[in-house]
Write a structure and sequence with these properties.
23 helices; eleven-stranded mixed sheet; alpha/beta; single chain
């Protein structure tokens, strides 16, 4: 009998309650948390929201975090929900083996950045700039609980938390983790309140999902997490099993950045693929917790997709966003916890505010609370900006049930890098740098632009920021000699996303007030704008995910793809790294000494991965692995296990590509690691490509280029003198700026 994945802990914090008991009571008494703004400092006090009923100071006091510790509301919410989940699962991360932490969030530290933005450019303390990016909050939450095996952040807007659950399940299936804490967190900020307001989709009353009079959504905030693990692991340690994860899927609508296609194609694909993954039939689903935002577009399109999947005999449906508001990146895990509570306690939450069915789609949700029901399988939907659509299916735990296993991890499945395209500070869209590299003396260098007209219509290009033009151009270039029509996945790593558009919207909001803002910059400010725009232009409805975990953002994306290849879920994928560096953000990071040791660069690179070798294949991706605060001997042990898995020894490694720069403090971990491989030539790449959140992708790209060309040129070596002919194996190590995050990636010639 197969070993299923089970849930052993849950934690939740929203506007309807702090903890599961308070949440359950609100659901059973039809008590909404939507109301007037109390904590967010905004001029839009007429817009109803659902706030967690605790100030930042109150949360800090509950958690024992002093006022002078630099953090923001988003990770504080996360820690509160994680603590409840870990306590229920009786888990202590520092003592309980291989526990991964996968977090979903988009706003990150924005609520502090919008308060302090102008101060950042003065002589005042700029410490909070280091808490702005999404990965900073994830690392802070992880550190609060001790030591996780690995951490990462998914940022796919409103489907982030659902996608975090999906990755956590795949990590466990692959054996990369025994257990995982998965979910999402998001606090309210003026940035996304004003952003949604510019889109004119905020209701001035409590939202009414699926009602004919619906007029928009209410924003909420909160956090929710699940502890998931293998059934055998849970049983061995005597943990209470709450339910099972039956199936899941992520797809892309590939229609519009903020709107859903009329036929709900992405939602339809997500639900049908989740059913296929679970081995269940539509008739097996007893309840659907719908995405149900209350906007005219979403509810009609989701209703259409539900009818396409389930027909007229659809199961009971309700959206619980009239209870909690739309918790954006946390919505998927918030609604997963609510769905599991419904299954545990035998009730169906009401769709508050529903009175009149939609005129265009005949879907009628559950109007009143229904109790005394038996729910065996529940589905929850989460759909985000960029058409990022995810569906999850949870099941009542049945110990003797035969588990359906459509995907099994198989090390024998191979992964090749079929083609690569890059735009950087070196010559774009080619490998000219390999023969004639450009060396810079400047501290701040922007990427060199190719002729975009070869790939993008000039009219369309004028509406795109620089990072989007680079991403689309490199994607089309990487796919030029491949079958783009059959592209199955687009997975992106980005530390900052479309920071230029984020800055423009933030500066306009701070300097000009919260009035007369335009939606354009907000629409293109989300981290997953990059992958969604590429999907839209390529009409790719397949798996679509974006990672934003500081210096291991790209390796997080690469690991996701690698696992899905080994699980048999993917046969090809575009995996990329995309970051831009604006003058303002360069100046801010310079104040916190981010650039000590390297000049600022920009990243745009796609690797086209495929499961078969061709005559023009670049190299083979043998392995990739992430680490968070590894113990003293953990990297050494992981290296040996990685090599043994492929029948290799340390002496087989021809070179080690490191992230060395001119800062000796940043380099000490690289020096220590290189001593483990005394026969391997130490390499570097940042003197050519610069520094940046996803610059490690250029290290992997440089190593892949060496394997493709059968040569390591001397200017890549530590001392600028050593060259290697016909290298067979190159190991890439990244320890980002002496931080807590590491990665190892092993490549071989094809």
């Amino acid at each position: 009998m197969a070993d299923c994945i089970v849930v052993t802990g849950m934690g939740i914090v929203t506007g309807i309650g702090v903890g599961k008991e308070a949440t359950l009571a609100s659901l059973l008494h039809s008590r909404s948390g939507v109301g007037r703004i109390k904590h967010l400092n905004t001029s839009h006090t007429d817009i109803p929201v659902c706030e967690v009923p605790l100030s930042e100071q109150q949360m800090r006091q509950r958690l024992g975090i002093p006022a002078d510790v630099v953090t923001t509301r988003t990770p504080l919410l996360a820690i509160m929900a994680m603590r409840e989940a870990l306590q229920q699962a009786r888990l202590h991360t520092a003592k309980d083996g291989a526990v991964a932490f996968v977090n979903g969030t988009t706003v990150g530290g924005m609520e502090k950045s919008e308060q302090l933005y102008l101060d950042f450019f003065s002589d005042k303390d700029v410490a909070y700039i280091a808490a702005h990016d999404c990965g900073a909050g994830t690392a802070f939450a992880a550190d609060f609980f001790g030591r996780f095996k690995q951490t990462t952040t998914i940022s796919t807007a409103c489907s982030s938390a659902s996608n975090a659950i999906i990755l956590g399940a795949n990590l466990i299936k692959s054996g990369r983790a025994d257990k995982a804490v998965v979910g999402g967190t998001e606090c309210l900020s003026k940035f996304h309140l004003n952003g949604f307001n510019t889109l004119m989709i905020l209701d001035r009353e409590r939202c009414r999902p699926f009602d004919n009079s619906r007029n928009g959504l209410n924003l909420g905030e909160g956090a929710a997490y699940l502890v998931i693990e293998r059934e055998s692991v849970a049983k061995a340690r005597g943990a209470e099993i709450l339910c099972t994860i039956e199936g899941y899927a992520n797809t892309c609508d590939a229609f519009h950045q903020t709107a859903t296609s009329p036929e709900g194609e992405g939602a339809y694909l997500a639900m049908t693929q989740a059913l296929a993954d679970s081995g269940l039939q539509p008739s097996d689903i007893d309840y659907i917790n719908a995405h149900g935002t209350g906007t005219p577009n979403n509810d009609s399109c989701e209703g259409t997709a539900i009818l396409r999947v389930f027909g007229d005999k659809y199961p009971p449906i309700s959206s619980t966003k009239a209870f909690t508001g739309h918790c954006t990146s946390a919505a998927g895990s918030v609604e997963a916890v609510i769905s599991i509570l419904a299954m545990q306690h035998g009730f169906i939450p009401p769709n508050l505010g529903f009175e009149t069915p939609m005129a265009d789609v005949p879907v009628v949700p559950q109007k009143t609370l229904k109790t005394g029901v038996s729910l065996t399988h529940v589905m929850t939907n989460s759909f985000g900006f960029g058409g990022n659509d995810s569906s999850l299916i949870f099941g009542k735990y049945q110990p003797e049930k035969q588990v359906y296993t459509p995907s099994v991890y198989d090390e024998k499945r191979r992964v090749f890098i079929g083609s690569v395209s890059q735009i950087s500070v070196q010559q774009p869209l080619g490998e000219e740098w390999f023969e004639n590299p450009i060396f810079y003396n400047e501290k701040y260098v922007r990427a060199l632009s190719p002729d975009y007209k070869r790939f993008i219509d000039p009219k369309a290009a004028r509406r795109m920021g620089a990072v989007l033009k680079r991403a689309l151009t490199t994607a089309m270039s990487a796919l030029k000699n491949r079958n783009a029509a059959d592209l199955q996945a687009i997975i992106t790593g980005t530390g900052l996303g479309c920071i230029e558009n984020t800055e423009k919207f933030l500066r306009a909001m701070v300097e000009d007030g919260e009035q007369l803002l335009t939606p354009t910059y907000f629409m293109q400010s989300t981290h997953n704008t990059i992958s969604s725009q590429v999907a839209l232009n390529l009409r790719c409805h397949g798996y679509n995910c974006t990672y934003s975990q500081r210096g291991v953002s790209f390796e997080s994306a690469l690991q996701d793809a690698f696992l899905q290849f080994k699980l048999g879920k993917l046969g090809n994928a575009l995996v990329g790294a995309h970051d831009e560096m604006t003058p303002d953000y360069y100046a801010l990071l310079d104040k916190v000494h981010f650039w000590d040791g390297a000049f600022a660069g920009e990243t745009a690179v796609w690797l086209y991965l495929e499961n078969g070798r061709k005559s023009d294949t670049w190299c083979e991706l043998l392995d990739t692995q992430l680490f968070f605060r590894p113990a003293e001997d953990e990297l050494q042990n992981a290296l040996d296990i990685m090599l043994q898995r492929h029948g290799l020894h340390r002496s087989d490694i021809a070179a080690v590509m490191t992230g060395k720069d001119e800062n000796a403090e940043n380099n000490r971990h690289y020096d220590d690691f290189c001593r483990l491989l005394p026969n391997a030539v130490p390499l570097r790449y940042k003197h050519l490509f610069g520094e940046g959140f996803t610059m490690p992708a250029m290290g992997i790209y440089a190593a892949a280029t060496c394997l493709k060309k059968g040569l390591i040129p001397p200017f890549l070596s530590d001392d600028d003198t050593q060259s290697v002919d016909n290298p067979h194996f190159i190991l890439v190590i990244n320890n980002y700026q002496n931080s807590s995050e590491y990665s190892l990636t092993l490549l071989s010639n094809a």
